[in-house]
């Protein structure tokens, strides 16, 4: 059963969903974490001891601050209404899905799931479905997002003797890290699937890395199984990562994009005409109970759409600034910058 969220009522009509429900405000979480002085953990010198506790404390602090910013952005855009803010509809669907998962106890730690790629009951079962796919079995290099519900997929990738490509959290310290089971002890593979483990055991790569990605796994908040239209948590990192990999020649239109979600995250009201040109559609959906091939008609992004990228986002991500400087030098012309806002404006989609 798919859920229609735009009406404000879940599949169970007796369950009224409040789009502003949040049992723990991000600001209160943020207040519990003492911000640390920024340290570039990706550039530790040989012989330096990796301080896992300091890394995790800094990550949690920065993540809490980002969640607080997202919560404020969502509140303003929802309150502005869909007529005055074309991005409000995405936040309405996200908030109602987060509320639904919390209310029905489909959510798993870390909770609350608001402003996250939600961890869900049955995530390992969904990962097992993904592992049965021919696209996964035949893959040598698998790109997997760093979120909690995809942790088992990262483990299956490494334990299956494949290369794992995973982004550094919010692209703050760099771009991607590569992990290979050949360079890991069997007892460290589980740890290597965590954010601390990626920082500890991963090899950071740059824009010049020669790599071919055979399969992309991304997390989602809601997905339409009929079209492959997907909503993430609202920061746009999956789209930015996809765009940079396109520039590197690591992926193309034929590279499968797969997501794992709870069955309740299947929705039927993500309008194609309102999607942004950079939104990444999914080819395959794995839930704990089924596998869905979407045959998506949505064109995949061809790179970074600089005219949609805000100055704030550009300033936040070093690898994007490096890529922009490189392209401007190669082309001899200055690339555009998008409007000053958290998320880029919507653009019309054309069906294939």
Automatic annotation (TrEMBL):
Source domain of life: Eukaryota
Pfam families: 5-FTHF_cyc-lig (PF01812)
InterPro entries: FTHF_cligase (IPR002698), FTHF_cligase-like_sf (IPR024185), NagB/RpiA_transferase-like (IPR037171)
Region annotation Disordered: where it falls in the sequence: 328-352
Protein name in the entry: (rape) hypothetical protein
Organism of derivation: Brassica napus
């Amino acid at each position: 059963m798919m859920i229609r969220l735009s009406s404000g009522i879940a599949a169970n009509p007796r369950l009224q969903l409040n789009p502003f429900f949040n049992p723990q405000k991000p600001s209160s979480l943020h207040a519990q974490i003492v911000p640390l002085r920024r340290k570039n953990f990706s550039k530790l010198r040989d012989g330096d001891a990796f301080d896992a506790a300091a890394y995790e404390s800094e990550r949690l602090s920065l993540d809490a601050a980002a969640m607080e910013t997202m919560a404020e952005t969502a509140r303003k855009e929802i309150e502005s209404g869909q007529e005055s803010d074309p991005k409000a509809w995405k936040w309405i669907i996200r908030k109602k899905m987060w509320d639904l998962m919390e209310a029905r106890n489909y959510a798993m730690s870390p909770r609350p799931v608001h402003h996250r790629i939600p961890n869900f009951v049955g995530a390992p079962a969904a990962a097992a479905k993904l592992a049965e796919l021919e696209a996964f079995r035949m893959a040598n290099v698998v790109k997997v997002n760093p979120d909690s519900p995809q942790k088992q997929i990262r483990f299956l990738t490494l334990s299956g003797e494949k290369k794992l490509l995973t982004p550094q959290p919010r692209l703050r310290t760099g771009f991607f890290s590569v992990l290979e089971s050949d360079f890991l002890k069997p007892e460290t593979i589980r740890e290597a699937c965590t954010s601390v483990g990626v920082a500890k055991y991963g090899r950071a790569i740059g824009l010049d890395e020669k790599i071919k990605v055979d399969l992309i796994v991304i997390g989602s908040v809601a997905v339409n199984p009929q079209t492959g239209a997907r909503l993430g948590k609202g920061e746009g990192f999956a789209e930015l990562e996809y765009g940079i990999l396109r520039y590197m020649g690591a992926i193309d239109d034929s590279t499968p994009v797969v997501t794992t979600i709870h069955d309740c995250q299947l929705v039927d009201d993500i309008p194609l005409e309102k999607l942004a040109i950079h939104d990444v559609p999914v080819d395959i959906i794995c839930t704990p109970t089924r596998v869905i091939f979407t045959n998506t008609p949505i064109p995949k992004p061809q790179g970074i759409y600089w005219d949609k990228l805000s100055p704030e986002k550009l300033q936040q991500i070093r690898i994007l600034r490096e890529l922009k400087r490189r392209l401007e030098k190669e082309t001899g012309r200055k690339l555009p910058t998008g409007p000053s806002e958290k998320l880029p404006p919507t653009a019309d989609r054309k069906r294939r």
